[in-house]
């Protein structure tokens, strides 16, 4: 059993009205290509534009009940295709960087806000989410348990590990940054160490500080019936704009998860207490700090 994922690696317009039109057109193209789910890059509603002025930022933020989001809810039902739509979400005290997944019936199944915001940069004007969530996605031929992490979340092993522990098989990751060897390696590692598939949709070249290269890592580094290791990268898009698709073999992933040693099988959570100690600050100035 396979699920086809569409990566909407497209350039945004000048405002939310244009982004709605461009995004809907991309979704239609995804459906024409046989996609079961279409994934947008990070914060599609405003093209990842983050003004540092609070009043200007608040004008761009929208609620999950806005017309923009409702249009994608209706489109998912019309196309009978799941859609992961990203947006700058209204929130007090500061907006959120969010994604909502609608299934092929137009039902909201997952609403996630980026936990690990880039508070060292433009995202210091945002609030961070407070948890990671999973949901069952019915795509017609079967079901898959999905979760989400957004861009910088991937740099923290805990993000994907929590999703795996909650049962995620496929992590859908909106993105807005240059995808180079180290970031791609982080995604590959998240897939490998958790036996999960990771699908990342980035903005293409032409969007500031972005370069396309959306990817699908299927989480299966080897097959018992074949010698040696295999490349988990099922698809890596070029830098150019486009709607790219890739298939994830769920049967192969599930067989690997049932047979292999990664993921949860040999964890020792009794030794990991330091991970939840809020007083540990790690390495600062070359020295380990605990306060």
Keywords, separated by commas or semicolons:
6-stranded mixed sheet; globular; 291 residues; alpha/beta; Nitrilase/N-carbamoyl-D-aminoacid amidohydrolase; 14 strands
Short characterization:
By secondary structure, the protein is an alpha/beta fold.
CATH homologous superfamily grouping: Carbon-nitrogen hydrolase
User: What oligomeric state best describes the polypeptide chains here?
Assistant: single chain
Identify low-pLDDT runs.
none
| Structural class by helix and strand composition | alpha/beta
Radius of gyration: 19 Å
Largest sheet: 6 strands, mixed
Report the principal-axis shape: globular
Averaged pLDDT, please? 95
Strand content: 25-35%
Task: Please give the order of strands in the largest beta sheet.
Answer: 5-4-3-2-1-12
Topology:
Blueprint (H helix, E strand, L loop, with lengths): L1 E8 L6 H17 L4 E3 L14 H7 L6 H13 L2 E8 L6 E7 L5 E6 L20 E5 L4 E6 L8 H9 L4 E5 L6 H14 L2 E5 L13 E3 L15 E4 L5 E8 H10 L20 E5 L2 E4 L1
Parallel strand pairs: 1-2, 2-3, 7-8, 8-9
Antiparallel strand pairs: 1-12, 3-4, 4-5, 6-7, 9-10, 10-11, 13-14
Helix pairs in contact: 1-3, 4-5
């Amino acid at each position: 059993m396979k699920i086809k994922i569409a990566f909407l690696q497209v350039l945004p317009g000048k405002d939310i009205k244009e982004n709605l039109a461009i995004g809907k057109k991309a979704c239609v193209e995804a459906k024409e290509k046989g996609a079961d789910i279409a994934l947008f890059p990070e914060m599609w509603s405003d093209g990842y534009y983050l003004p540092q002025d609070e009043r200007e930022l608040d004008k761009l933020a929208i609620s999950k009940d806005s017309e923009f989001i409702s249009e994608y809810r209706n489109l998912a039902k019309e196309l009978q295709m799941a859609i992961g739509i990203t947006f700058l979400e209204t929130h007090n005290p500061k907006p959120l960087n969010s994604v909502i997944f609608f299934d092929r019936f137009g039902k909201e199944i997952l609403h996630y806000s980026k936990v690990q915001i880039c508070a060292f940069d433009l995202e210091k004007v945002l609030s961070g989410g407070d948890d990671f969530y999973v949901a069952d996605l019915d795509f017609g031929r079967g079901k898959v348990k999905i979760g989400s992490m957004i861009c910088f979340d991937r740099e923290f092993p805990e993000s994907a590990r929590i999703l795996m522990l909650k049962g995620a098989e496929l992590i859908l990751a909106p993105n807005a940054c240059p995808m180079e060897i180290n970031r791609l390696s982080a995604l590959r590692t998240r897939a490998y160490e958790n036996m999960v598939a990771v699908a990342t949709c980035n903005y293409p070249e032409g969007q500031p500080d972005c370069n396309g290269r959306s990817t699908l890592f299927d989480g299966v580094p080897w097959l018992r019936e074949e010698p040696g290791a295999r490349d988990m990268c099922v698809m890596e898009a070029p830098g150019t704009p486009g709607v790219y698709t890739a298939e994830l073999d769920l049967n192969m992933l599930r067989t690997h998860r049932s047979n292999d040693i990664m993921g949860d099988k040999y964890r020792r959570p009794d030794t990991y207490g330091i991970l939840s100690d809020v007083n540990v600050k790690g390495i600062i100035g070359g020295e380990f700090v605990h306060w």
